[in-house]
Amino acid sequence: MTSPADNSLGHTDVRTVGSTDALPLSPSLGATLDAAKMPRRSTLVDRRVLRITAVSVVLGMGAALIAKILTMLIGLITNLAFYGRVSVAFSSPADAVPHLGWWVVLIPVLGGVIVGFMARWGSRAIRGHGIPEAMEQVLLNESKIPPRITFLKPVSSAIAIGTGGPFGAEGPIIATGGALGSFIGQILKVTGSERKVLLAAGAAAGMSAIFSAPIAAVVLAVELLLFELRPRSLIPVALACVAATGVRYVLMGTEPVFAMPALASPGGMALATYVLIGAVVGLISVWTTRIVYGIEDLFEKLPIHWMWWPAIGGVAVGVVGYFAPLTLGVGYTNIEDIVNGRLTLTALAFLCAMKFLSWSISLGSGTSGGTLAPLFTIGGALGAMMGIGVTMLAPHFGVDPRIAALVGMAAIFAGASRALLTAVVFAFETTAQPAGLLPLLGGCTAAYLISALMMRNTIMTEKIARRGVRVPAEYAADYLDQVVVGDACARDVVTLRTTQTLAEVRRWLNESTPESLHQGFPVLDERGHVRGVLTRRSLLDPQWHYTLTLGELVTRPPIAVSEEHSLREAADHMVAESVGRLVVVGKNDPHTLVGILTRGDILAAHGRRLREARHSSRYLRFRDGLKPRPEDASAGVRKGSGHVAE
């Protein structure tokens, strides 16, 4: 038995290029290795990314057309239900309430009955606002959404909204765009990861087409659907949003959705006030989420079939709509009025309370509709009320109620969904007010902080979390991708020779010396080249005759990795080859054994990450002239030891 040191094996660093799919070395380690390489370093993009990008651009244009059709369908149903006329023009149900009187209650009930029937005999997945269901398919089902959702979701949402449902069109079109992307991904021959990109591209394109907010849509896809930030996913989604927004410009113009006059940049006291407003709205967003799901729990206790719940929710929508007509329908004009300061304090308070009552009961009943527009209305009204209050009590603060409304609108979404960057960028893109960016960042971050402190799940994740789905809440760089194999592998490797017989090796194993207790041993030929790996179990297997040499026993080429591959590539290689250890070879001489990497070495490499996250210490001490304390210095992975330094 020999060690690498006895064979004068070199220690050099290596980095190969190509795909991440690992291939075993041939016994000769010659031409086959040169042709196939090893698990090669992944590139940022490849030709498949170009293919998915091209499909995503077409998908983005298709999602924009679907968004236009959906808004026309909502307009058609609204006009038929409230005005008795055939028109696809976008109309507000509020103007029809004085003429309809109490008959207005029956219209949302009828819409709820139709949605309930569609959910019962079409697909139950059309219930709710769609984003949690899309997240669940991404996390558990390789982004495979049933194709019928592509048709049922927009139709059911158009019926619910067109009959007075207090929802926005953005949630259904996001869900529909995602379903369309998933459908295309199921027709084409793509991987699960590529199908996820198509789903996210369709969903983000739908949001871009509704709000003309492509950057916010991309960030939304990253924060709520992709759960990653990689070029191979970011590029297709971004270009899909560009394509969707371009189609929107052609169909509906380039004006911001919530146009506002130019705003003045805030002063110091005003900025502090906006941050405080964001924190208060963040607190309210937590209770908003809890109340919505509390109402949903109450519906679960009703002694009737869930198919009838949307009709019961429709009763609440109709009754509230009779007293507060502005709560009916999408209410985008309400948001524009709020951020432009057109509503009085009393009108804001009434609209906020009534919209929340109508929306929370209707959404809790399981009907089909979105959450973004209602949240923006509620949050915007809250922010505007607080802004007006501060202006009345402390006019010298310089608080603008319109900026306060903008902060409230974005902060409630940031708190309820914890999509912080989406909320900030969305409010900016839909109003085109650069002076609001700093207040938005401060207010939304404050809301995000309060939400993260008080609430485990969000309005987007609570539903699927109750079904046992664990949703990623943090997006961090893969630590294993930052550590190279050469820094984690064991280099003091005990090796065997191809010329040794089983009888000789078995006697050595029975001696139970520390060197003989390993579970795997690389086998070298007479030139010191690795021929394969034999496990302790194979060496002691009685079916092999003791006269056999180890060279005759080696039937499988070694599964190898370079010392400059990342631990992520090595771990993927282990999984692909169903092995628990890899032979580590050098760069300049890939025939040469450098070490062994085991699953335990990969786990041990996490020690530094855990220590950096959990261990606190003072590195500089001013009393000693800023001299570092050696005992507090961060210890890395011992190079060549395969173990984390204590």
Quantity of strands, as a count? 8
In the predicted model, the low-confidence regions spanning at least 5 consecutive residues are 2-37, 631-646
**Silhouette:** elongated
Round the mean pLDDT to the nearest integer and report it.
83
What is the CA–CA distance across the termini? 30 Å
The DSSP helix count reads 25
| Residue share in β-strands | under 5%
**What radius of gyration results from the CA coordinates?**
31 Å
Q: Biggest β-sheet, characterized?
A: 3 strands, mixed
Strand arrangement across the biggest beta sheet: 1-2-3
Structural class: mainly alpha
Helix content: 40-55%
Membrane topology: Multi-pass membrane protein
Subcellular location: Membrane
Pfam families: CBS, Voltage_CLC
Keywords: CBS domain, Chloride, Chloride channel, Ion channel, Ion transport, Membrane, Transmembrane, Transmembrane helix, Transport
